[in-house]
Structure formats: structure tokens, C-alpha cells
Design goal:
This protein is mainly alpha-helical. The protein is built from three helices and no strands. The longest helix has 29 residues. It is elongated and about 55 Å long.
């Protein structure tokens, strides 16, 4: 498989997780007190739950559960940047070229 295609697929998954966390939070704000009964929220929760549990496992116990989703998003962003740095440093992807017509 082409390294650039692999990079794009991994980045797609990471970004989908980030946006799902954000959508889950926005839906909880908009749906009101019964947001856990919402089908879409439960679907988002099923997608983000493994990342949430992994983040909970690597963080100290004094960090409250309410902050874990924020920390998970931050760690996913750091992972996304680190992925780019890894692929770029290995020469598997190239930076975008400047537009010569501009």
C-alpha cells in the first residue's frame, strides 16, 4: 500500500473520532437532560467509548471523568500531528507545493 494512502486512512479515522467526540458533546448540550436516551448520542458513545476508556486508563485517577473526553480529543490531535511528523520525517509524504501561478 502506498504510504500516502495509509497516512490518509489513519488520519481519516483519527479525525472522525475527534469530530464524533465534538458531536457527542454538542448533542448532549442541545438534547437537554435526557441526552443519554438519544439514539444518535448512544451511537456516538459506542464509537468513542474505546478511546475514552484508553484515555481513562492512561490518566491519573485525580482527573475527573468529565474531563476525559476533552483530554481524549487533545490526545487525538497530538496523535494526528505526531503521525504527520513521523510520515514526513521518513520521507513517505511530501509537503504541499507552492502555487507557481500566484
Amino acid at each position: 500500500m502506498d504510504p500516502y494512502a495509509l497516512f490518509q486512512i489513519i488520519q481519516l479515522v483519527i479525525r472522525l473520532l475527534i469530530y464524533t467526540f465534538i458531536g457527542k458533546g454538542l448533542l448532549a448540550l442541545l438534547a437537554g437532560a435526557k441526552y443519554r436516551e438519544n439514539v444518535v448520542w448512544r451511537f456516538f458513545d459506542a464509537i468513542t467509548r474505546p478511546v475514552w476508556w484508553l484515555t481513562r486508563a492512561i490518566t491519573p485517577r485525580f482527573i475527573h471523568d468529565a474531563a476525559i473526553a476533552w483530554l481524549a480529543v487533545l490526545l487525538l490531535i497530538v496523535l494526528n500531528i505526531g503521525l504527520y511528523m513521523l510520515f514526513y520525517s521518513q520521507g513517505w509524504i511530501t509537503p504541499p507545493r507552492e502555487n507557481p501561478a500566484a
